[in-house]
Amino acid sequence: MDVAQGGPIMRLEGIGYSYHNRIPAVEEVDLTISEGEKFAIIGANGTGKSTLMQIMSGLVHQTAGKIFFRDQEVSEQALKNRSFLKYFRERVGYVFQDSDVQLFCPTVLDELLYGPLQLNVNEDEAMDRAREVMKMLEIENLRDRPTYMLSGGEKKRVAIGSVLTMNPEVMLFDEPTNGLDPRTQCFLIELLVALSEAGKTLVIATHDLSLVSELETMVALLSENHRVAKIGTSEEILNDEALLLKANLIHEHIHYHGKEAHKHSHSHFLFHRHSE
Amino acid sequence: MKSKIPAFLIERTSVQPYVPSKGRLKKSFIEKGIDHLAEVIKSGYVQWETSLMDSIFHRIDARIKLLFLLFFVVIVSLKHQIVPEFYIAGFIFLLTLIAGLNTLQFYKKVLFLGFFFGFLVALPSALNVISRGEVVVPILHLSRDYNFWVYHIPAEIGMTREGLNAVSMLTIRVVNSVSLSFLVLFTTPFPEIIKALKVMRVPDSFIMIITLCYKYIFIFVKTVEDMHLAKKSRTVGQVNNAEARQWVGARIGSVFKKTQLRCEEIFKAMLGRGFSTEIRLYQSRKLSSHDIAAGGIFLVIGGLFLWM
């Protein structure tokens, strides 16, 4: 079942960011994300996906352009307002690429309770949320374990859980499948589908084309010059082999059939097919 | 999976639009501290960028520059008059111009350190309570002299001429030494400095400590910065100083644990690539005539300063 998509929930206008005011990370990015939508930002390494996600979550602030959440401008100044900060943080959750840095509490349970307690959710309800999320993510056995004693997959589940207990409307995932084993990847994809069906707006930064294909997202492709090269459905983007090749998301692959050399575009998921 | 989605996740947070209200959040001391930590990465980047510039001074071999640094720091600490110290300061200023460094930024850093570690640290020693002499800046008048244990507190307390001279000497020495160090640091890539230290027979353990510390600072700052962002993404409202201190206290433990684990991993990676206890670096290039000429000029100028 697909949840009907609403109006724009997040809008980016001419967003630009450069590190140390010298190294460009993102340039003139315009995006509109609708409520309930699954939206992927894809691009090769270093195209500015993570920076863009951190700008969207109001954690770093753009050096050019404007960003709006439900028509409210999200700026450094706006986030200094107590009520706007609460309004924004309880609606937008961010799952970091590196779970290690996201997990800063002593145990898994503390991690899951941190967000809701910050949002002034009462302790009983926060505990209920943590319990239900642990059950859904199958991490009940890790409840009292220190976060540094978890495996990569477990850390990812706890990191997602720590945001889920806040029940945000928009969830931003930075490279969610990075470094996960196939079973955890599969679990994660199922989870993302279920969250989308539950009405969450999902924004995913990735270069994993299979994830984009499985979730059938809207896609914005970032080029190596840190700009949006194309926005379209996953089908439109993934079928544009020339664009993917140019964006360094697939590569030319040469191999031999007997003595005959053979060349085709190659990605480890979608494009291992032989053209005529 | 769908059947497992908890009911609270299907509920919408609130359909109410945002209603603006007053209530500003102040920047907490943690946030300010993290901003300063982020500056560390930026200054590292600036050092890397300026060290790759091209000038006559940049082209001098790192070994010559390190010897120049050592030689001049010794000269700076041997001089007992303030005038030669000013000449040395002038010479360093000339070198920063030749190196094409941003002199304003350069001296901002140098004077800041010189003020704290030279002037402020030494200032109390200018009082006649510590250094005897002619009082030129009176501060306080007491009714009589006091004798306490081995201390003598005179009736008139103030700065002495001898004390002020000593403070000025120490300040200019600190300024000169810091500017010499910064000059070499900003004109030499870090790996070249390490290689020069190795060539100059500095013990391997010392080089390893410097190299790892340098890397550790960046890894540590990045970890702290990312952790702060992770906290920020789940924090609403003002965090008071007591809570902030509590959070920092608790996180010091977890950062220590994380960096300790990272350290073990790095050491395993070093072992995996054949590290024993000796640091092996590839052969340094031979000194060119340009390097030898520069070394000779530094030697002559240094000799002149010593003679003055």
Q: Largest inter-chain interface? A: A-B, 60 and 44 residues
Main β-sheet, spatial strand arrangement of chain B: 1-4
N-to-C series of helices and strands of chain B: HHHHHHEEEEHHHHH
Oligomer: heterodimer
> Strand content of the residues of chain A, in percent?
25-35%
Distance between the termini of chain B: 84 Å
Largest sheet data of chain B: 2 strands, antiparallel
Rg result of chain A: 20 Å
Helix content of chain A: 25-40%
Percentage of residues in DSSP E strands of chain B: 5-15%
Q: Which keywords apply here?
A:
heterodimer; A: 276 residues; alpha/beta; Rossmann fold; six-stranded mixed sheet; four-stranded antiparallel sheet; 10 helices; 28% strand; globular; disordered C terminus; B: 308 residues; mainly alpha; two-stranded antiparallel ribbon; two-stranded antiparallel sheet; 11 helices; 4 strands
Written overview of the protein:
The complex is a heterodimer of chains A (276) and B (308). Chain A has 276 residues and is of the alpha/beta class. Chain A has a domain of 151 residues: Rossmann fold (3-Layer(aba) Sandwich), CATH 3.40.50. Helix content of chain A is 34%, strand content 28%. In chain A, helix 4 packs across helix 5 and helix 4 runs parallel beside helix 6. The C terminus of chain A is likely disordered. With 308 residues, chain B is mainly α. Chain B has one domain. In chain B, 66% of the residues lie in helices and 6% in strands. The radius of gyration of chain B is 27 Å and the shape is extended. The termini of chain B are far apart. The model of chain B has no long low-confidence stretch (mean pLDDT 81). Classes of the chains: A alpha/beta (276), B mainly alpha (308). The interface between A and B is large, with 60 and 44 residues.
